[in-house]
Design brief:
Pathway: Cofactor biosynthesis; biotin biosynthesis; biotin from 7,8-diaminononanoate: step 2/2
Mean pLDDT: 95
Structural class: alpha/beta
Bound molecules: S-adenosylmethionine, 6-(5-methyl-2-OXO-imidazolidin-4-yl)-hexanoic acid, iron/sulfur cluster
CATH topology: TIM Barrel
Radius of gyration: 19 Å
CATH superfamily: Aldolase class I
Pfam families: BATS, Radical_SAM
Subunit structure: Homodimer.
Keywords: 2Fe-2S, 4Fe-4S, Biotin biosynthesis, Iron, Iron-sulfur, Metal-binding, S-adenosyl-L-methionine, Transferase
Order of helices and strands: HHEHEHEHEHHEEHEHEHEHE
Strand content: 5-15%
Distance between the termini: 40 Å
Low-confidence stretches: 1-5, 8-16
Function: Catalyzes the conversion of dethiobiotin (DTB) to biotin by the insertion of a sulfur atom into dethiobiotin via a radical-based mechanism.
Shape: globular
Helix content: 25-40%
């Protein structure tokens, strides 16, 4: 039995941008009876969004592997011996071709990822043409290049970047178990730079890394208390890759994943909550429950960065079955 009473209600809902959620509050949400939690999340979803619409983002890895960081989940870290083969930066023409294909498949946003701690200024220069040309195709643009230095976010913004993705990845208390090569504060600093440059923020995390429910609450609190809240919140279920320190992590029960989505929706009512990595390992009914619980975005395309994603035809079939229309 759950110890949190059904009548749990958050006192006097403030403006969502001044949420000031506590870890206790979000942990209590996560512990509500599942059907009650999903119902509340679905109600909030309908207040702020059309629940028949879904946002589709396609990923491409513009520079793969050989990353100096030691993130325990990541197959691209040079610290881990994984099946990922290092690849140099893609050309602008290759990136544009991938973006055209994404658009033809129905994606609305194209997200370029690089296995860097952060971009050197010369690296960044090479990506600006990619951003410009992808934007010119009529797609929204997103980049995830790691930690940014002063001025870099502005250069990306000037080139036509709409979103910058930089995840907090886990709760502050759990962070040191997962990553040693950079601090939580470094990540918050980059998010501040992204905001200051006028870019939209895409910021989320990963669950299924042997964390506790309280850790998941701690991550949601960090995200929800960003002011303003992120426009886009990717919730990744760890993709376990051979050779990474987390390859043997305990599988998160699907109900805990649904709970995480629902609590993120309630804590961040105006944000797009993305059902992100890990969908290939999830059945259609679980995904449907995530959409009911307020997820309204997915990564769409046969690949994430280096690992698989449901193929486009399977996702088109799922969207048709669920009567979800791409944005
Ligand atoms: N290198 C940049 C950085 O870390 O900021 C950008 C690319 S990095 C691959 C982007 C995000 O991918 C990470 O923050 C993490 O949330 C996610 N990610 C990486 N490996 C993952 C895995 N095995 N399962 C789920 N998400 C993963
Ligand atoms: C995010 O939150 N998840 C994406 C994107 N942002 C960059 C990446 C998922 C990566 C999964 C492992 C891989 O394919 O390498
Ligand atoms: Fe590098 Fe990003 Fe992977 Fe960390 S998550 S190892 S920074 S590519």
């Amino acid at each position: 039995m759950h110890s949190v009473p059904m009548e749990f209600k958050r006192p006097a809902a403030p403006h969502p941008q001044q949420a000031n959620w506590s870890v206790d509050e979000v942990e209590a949400l996560l512990g509500l009876p599942l059907m009650e939690l999903v119902f509340r999340a679905a109600e909030i979803h309908r207040q702020f969004f059309d629940p028949t619409k879904i946002q589709l983002s396609t990923l491409v890895s513009i520079k793969t592997g050989g990353c100096p960081e030691d993130c325990g989940y990541c197959p691209q870290s040079a610290h881990h011996d994984t099946p990922v083969e290092d690849q140099p930066m893609m050309t602008v023409a290759e990136v544009v071709a991938a973006a055209r294909q994404a658009k033809a498949n129905g994606a609305g946003r194209f997200c370029m990822g690089a296995a860097w701690r952060g971009p050197k200024d010369a690296d960044l220069g090479q990506t600006l043409d990619m951003v410009r040309e992808v934007k010119a195709l009529g797609l929204e643009t997103c980049a995830t290049f790691g930690l940014l230095r002063d001025g870099q976010a502005e250069r990306l913004k000037d080139a036509g970047l709409d979103y910058y993705n930089h995840n907090l990845d886990t709760a502050p208390d759990k962070y040191a178990d997962i990553i040693q090569s950079r601090e939580y504060e470094d990540r918050l600093d980059t998010l501040g730079k992204v905001r200051k440059a006028g870019l939209s923020v895409c910021c989320g995390g990963i669950v299924g890394m042997n964390e506790t429910r309280r850790d998941r609450a701690g991550l949601i609190v960090q995200l929800a208390n960003l002011d303003p809240q992120p426009e886009s919140v990717p919730v990744n279920n760890l993709v376990k890759v051979v050779g990474t320190p987390l390859e043997g992590a305990e599988k998160l029960d699907w109900t805990e994943f649904v709970r995480t989505i629902a609590a993120a929706r309630i804590a961040m009512p105006r944000s797009y909550v993305r059902l992100s990595a890990g969908r290939r390992e999830m059945d259609e009914a679980t995904q449907a429950l995530c959409f009911l619980a307020g997820a309204n975005s997915i990564f769409y395309g046969d690949k994430l960065l280096t690992t698989g994603n449901p193929d486009v035809l399977a996702d088109q079939s799922l969207m048709a079955k669920l009567d979800l229309q791409p944005l």
